[in-house]
Specification:
By secondary structure, the protein is of the alpha+beta class. Strands 10-9-8-7-11 form a 5-stranded antiparallel β-sheet, with no helix packed on it. A 4-stranded antiparallel β-sheet has the order 2-5-1-6, with helices on one face. The protein starts with a strand and ends with a strand. The mean pLDDT is about 85.
Length: about 170
């Protein structure tokens, strides 16, 4: 099986989130979850001063571009290229060029896979991050994103929370 790489797609300015939503819907409809693994609009936190108050807002890191982690073949190329709002892949002519390791590093995209000793249904403890010291049962695992979804009790309700593999450990 071919290896998944990160590709950059050029979109109409301001349509990045719409393109992301459209591609994710198409992935679901055409059952391409194994071929198109992740769609991202890179964001960064920026502190702005408005009316004398500091406010942290999220801004697009690359306006007009969307990152896609996918296995390149005729089907996936066609789906992405023909999504409304997409003007094309970044690369010479019609041949998309995957991002290199050096290009991905400043974007915060981890390429190394974290091996885990837990599976769906196992009880895990969160050891880092916002949900530190929380215990939950793994509902779903996403190896593409390197995350596990667990249910935590929030305001008296079970709420699904996505946690990075590196932030959890299996309960004995």
């Amino acid at each position: 099986m071919a290896e998944a790489n990160w590709y950059v797609v050029h979109t109409y300015s301001g349509y990045e989130n719409k393109v992301k939503a459209n591609i994710e819907k198409t992935i679901e409809n055409r059952h391409l979850e194994e071929e198109i693994l992740e769609v991202r609009v890179p964001m960064e936190d920026v502190v702005e001063m408005k009316n004398g108050a500091r406010k942290t807002v999220q801004k697009k890191l690359f306006p007009g571009y969307v990152l896609i982690n996918m296995i390149m073949n005729d089907d996936t190329w066609y789906v992405v290229r023909n999504t409304r709002g997409v003007t094309g892949f970044v690369g010479p002519g019609s041949k998309p060029v995957p991002l290199t390791e050096a290009e991905m590093k400043p974007l915060g995209i981890k390429t190394e896979n974290v091996s885990v000793d837990f599976a769906e249904g196992d009880t895990i403890a969160v050891v880092a991050g916002v949900w530190k010291d929380t215990v939950g049962v793994v509902q779903r695992m996403d190896f593409g994103k390197q995350t596990a979804t667990i249910n935590v009790e929030l305001f008296g309700r079970e709420t699904p929370v996505e946690i990075g593999f590196a932030e959890v450990r299996k309960m004995s």
